[in-house]
Write a structure and sequence with these properties.
This protein folds into two domains: about 1-145, Rossmann fold, CATH 3.40.50.720; about 155-255, Orthogonal Bundle (N-(1-d-carboxylethyl)-l-norvaline Dehydrogenase, domain 2), CATH 1.10.1040.10. By secondary structure, it is an alpha/beta fold. The model is unreliable at about 245-255 (pLDDT under 50). Strands 2-1-3-4-5-6-7 form a seven-stranded mixed beta sheet, sandwiched between helices. The protein has helices at about 10-20, 45-50, 60-70, 90-95, 110-115, 125-135, 150-180, 180-195, 195-205, 210-225, 230-240, 245-255, and strands spanning about 1-5, 25-30, 55, 80, 100-105, 120-125, 140-145.
């Protein structure tokens, strides 16, 4: 199988490297990153030519531009899978903009540590094909709906809870620090959710704050579309917005 991976950050780079290890022919493209363990194409167009599958692992904000930039170079039998966390509306727009079969794929695990074995939800016309191709390579894929956006919507609903709990932990510990009771409160929280998950919530929320703010805003928009007031999603986005990766470094060292 020939696979083009567009976007070679933490998630895309790890998935691309795992595909290489699995015996796939991989061509990766990222304008800012050229990892040594992934065959790098000269351009996005070069990456997608002759590809059986294109994996878009960029960011929601550029997903449409990336798709538009390669659409004319796609073979008629190519499967285009968008793995970005975005709104159902964006996934539908992507499906409509592409001349090939489309799969809305939502990754629901920690990709940098799980790579190709990260559980995924898939929807859209190309969902079953995506599952048939990537399941044998080790990715647990659940087909959740016929329409693009079905997988994206389920992930956003999950994100309201996961990111909401993470932000609650951040706020609780900030207040505990001010009260001189941080160690006690941290122990109480860890007793409920586990030390490992708490560490992931704290460090990950800082290191990936910008991406998670976008995700929560997409979740808030989806909740409003469903007629639900997005109180937690909106508040969580507001808390995460000022955070940056520099704080995460200090946090990890302190721990």
């Amino acid at each position: 199988m020939e696979v083009a991976v567009l976007g070679l950050g933490e998630a895309g780079g790890r998935i691309a490297a795992d595909l290489v290890a699995a015996g796939c022919t991989v061509r990766g493209w990222d304008p800012a990153r050229r990892p040594a363990d992934v065959p790098n194409a000269d351009s996005a167009l070069d990456a997608v030519r002759r590809a059986d599958v294109v994996l878009s692992v960029n960011a929601a904000g550029v997903a449409l531009d990336v798709a538009a930039g390669v659409a004319d170079a796609l073979d008629g039998d190519t499967l285009y899978a968008d793995l970005n966390t975005s709104s159902p509306e964006l996934k539908r727009a992507l499906a409509e903009s592409l001349p090939v079969e489309f799969a809305d794929v939502a990754l629901v695990g920690v990709v940098p540590s799980s790579g190709l074995r990260t559980p995924a939800l898939a929807a859209g016309a190309g969902a079953s094909r995506f599952a048939a191709l990537f399941g044998p390579l080790g990715m647990p894929v659940e087909v959740v709906g016929p329409q693009p956006g079905d997988a994206a919507g389920l992930k956003l609903l999950r994100s309201v809870f996961m990111k909401g709990v993470a932000v609650a932990a951040i706020e609780s510990l900030e207040a505990a620090r001010a009260a001189g009771a941080e160690e006690r409160v941290r122990g109480d929280i860890a007793e409920v959710i586990g030390e490992r998950l708490l560490d992931r919530f704290l460090a990950g929320s800082h290191a990936h704050a910008a991406r998670r703010v976008d995700e929560l805003r997409a979740a808030a928009a989806y909740l409003e579309e469903l007629g639900v007031r997005p109180l937690v999603a909106s508040a969580a986005a507001e808390v995460l917005a000022p955070l940056d990766a520099d704080e995460a470094v200090g946090l990890e060292r302190a721990e």
